[in-house]
C-alpha cells in the first residue's frame, strides 16, 4: 500500500503548495499518510508531528528531521497532525482552534 499512499508526495506541485503554506505560516492539517508530503516538501525539520504508524511514514518523518510522536493529535505552531481516522475528534478540535485564531 505504501507505494500508492505516498504518490502525492512525489508530485512537484503538491510539494510547492505545501512549501508555500509553511512559508506564509498558514494553518496546515495532515492525517494518516499526509505527513509523507510534508517530509518530501522539506518543511518538518525540528517540527513535532504524528502520522499513521505503519507503511514507513514515521521513518520518512524522522529522515526529514521531524520529531515523530505516537499521539492521537500533535500541534506544533501552524501544523496539526493526527494518526488515522479514529483520531479525528481530537484532530478536528485542534484544527478548529488553529483556524479560529
Stretches with pLDDT under 50, minimum 5 residues: none
Kindly report the CATH topology. Answer: Rossmann fold
Number of DSSP-assigned strands: 5
C-alpha end-to-end distance: 37 Å
Which properties best describe this structure?
3-stranded mixed β-sheet; Rossmann fold; 5 helices; two-stranded parallel sheet
Short description:
With 101 residues, this protein is of the alpha/beta class. It has helices at residues 2-5, 12-23, 35-41, 57-63, 88-99, and strands spanning 28-31, 48-49, 67-68, 73-76, 79-82. It has a single domain (2-99), classed as Rossmann fold (3-Layer(aba) Sandwich).
What would your notes on this structure say?
By secondary structure, the protein is an alpha/beta fold. The chain has one domain: 3-Layer(aba) Sandwich (Rossmann fold), CATH 3.40.50. The chain has five helices and five strands. The strands form two sheets. Strands 1-5-4 form a three-stranded mixed beta sheet, sandwiched between helices. The radius of gyration is 12 Å and the shape is globular. The N and C termini lie far apart (37 Å).
Amino acid at each position: 500500500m505504501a507505494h500508492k499512499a505516498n504518490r502525492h508526495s512525489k508530485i512537484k506541485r503538491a510539494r510547492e503548495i505545501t512549501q508555500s503554506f509553511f512559508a506564509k505560516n498558514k494553518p496546515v492539517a495532515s492525517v494518516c499518510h499526509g505527513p509523507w508530503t510534508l517530509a518530501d516538501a522539506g518543511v518538518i525539520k525540528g517540527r513535532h508531528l504524528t502520522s499513521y504508524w505503519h507503511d514507513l511514514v514515521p521513518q520518512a518523518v524522522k529522515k526529514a528531521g521531524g520529531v515523530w510522536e505516537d499521539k492521537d493529535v500533535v500541534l506544533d505552531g501552524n501544523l496539526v497532525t493526527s494518526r488515522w481516522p479514529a483520531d479525528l475528534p481530537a484532530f478536528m478540535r485542534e484544527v478548529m482552534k488553529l483556524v479560529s485564531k
